[in-house]
Amino acid sequence: MTPPQRQRRQPVPEPPEGPPQEDGKDVERLYVISGADGERAPLDLVTLIVARAEPPSSATPEQTAVLRMCRAPLSVAEISAYLSLPFSVMTVLLTEMLAADLVQARAPIVRQKIPDRSLLEAVMHGLQRL
Amino acid sequence: MDFKGSDTIPGPRSEDHLPHTTTAAAKIVIVGGFGVGKTTMVGSVSEIRPLTTEETMTQAGIGVDDNYGSESKTATTVAMDFGRIRISDQVVLYLFGTPGQERFWFLWNGLFEGALGAVVLVDTRRLEVSFEVMGRLEERGVPFVVAVNTFPDGPRYPVEDLRAALDLQPEVPIVECDVRRRASSRDVLMTLMRFLHALALSRSRT
Ligand SMILES: Nc1nc2c(ncn2[C@@H]2O[C@H](COP(=O)(O)OP(=O)(O)OP(=O)(O)O)[C@@H](O)[C@H]2O)c(=O)[nH]1
Ligand SMILES: [Mg+2]
User: Fold this and answer.
1) Any idea which fold B19-56+74-205 has?
2) Which residues, 6 or more positions from B62, have their beta carbon under 8 angstroms from its beta carbon?
3) What's the ipTM?
């Protein structure tokens, strides 16, 4: 039996941005991502969020929930999952909280052209214990 | 949302709290076409109960319902499941099982941008459902390994036939796995890490 054949692709210098317009279908986000100043929130799925303070009396229920669950570091993806809020809504909420100094963000480790060997070794070590 | 008066405050169980010393998180994506085992793999290696992050989007002009002469819009919720593995007191690793349809990926800002690498799951009964995903990873320069999720009724191809069919460079690892088993899924992740490590060595030499 012969398996179907694929064709390798080359890296594209500028990765396509935004929604692909496949099949002529118009796909758009329901929620617009923008922070207080209209800037796109620099939050990644795995940016870690840590509370800086106890919920102030002025906090909204969502903010209170975030501050409670972020007493220990927690990723934006997890916060979104626990609050059942879409990721884009979550980033807007967190951007406001960052601006108000209610929370702190810890930037993720991102892929580099030359992978960080000591990080990979740490990951392998961690996986071995699993 | 109404959390007041509820005794179930949303959030992680106490045993799932990350230590305060955790400085950063890294991520890996698990991709592949429909039903190849992405969710199963995330669930089998994750140390926390797998979670789901959602994104909502509108889709115009689908299922043409223009009885009222207006454009129809439907809101679609797309879900992505993910899990987590603690690596050390400083580092935590997240695994994202992407939606099978590539056109949904853009919904999550930065899903592929920072990922250390990817696991492409293939099912030998339907190899072609994972082709598009591989092409996208190549275009974006995301390094990946191929894991053949072995279903009992799937054809078994010699690895070199698979390599030729998938048009993969000789250095790209192809491994067999059973994503239902934690050890097997873990070994796939280990293969990815070794591959990335070798890549680091060869790239730092040039
Ligand atoms: N026999 C066998 N069945 C498997 C294996 N892995 C997954 N399955 C089954 O295959 C089905 C699909 O697995 P999922 O993990 O949901 O696949 P998925 O890639 O997340 O699917 P979508 O999200 O719908 O694209 C489930 O019913 C699994 O129980 C495997 O290794 N062997
Ligand atoms: Mg799934």
Assistant:
1) Rossmann fold (3.40.50)
2) A25, B72, B74
3) 0.88
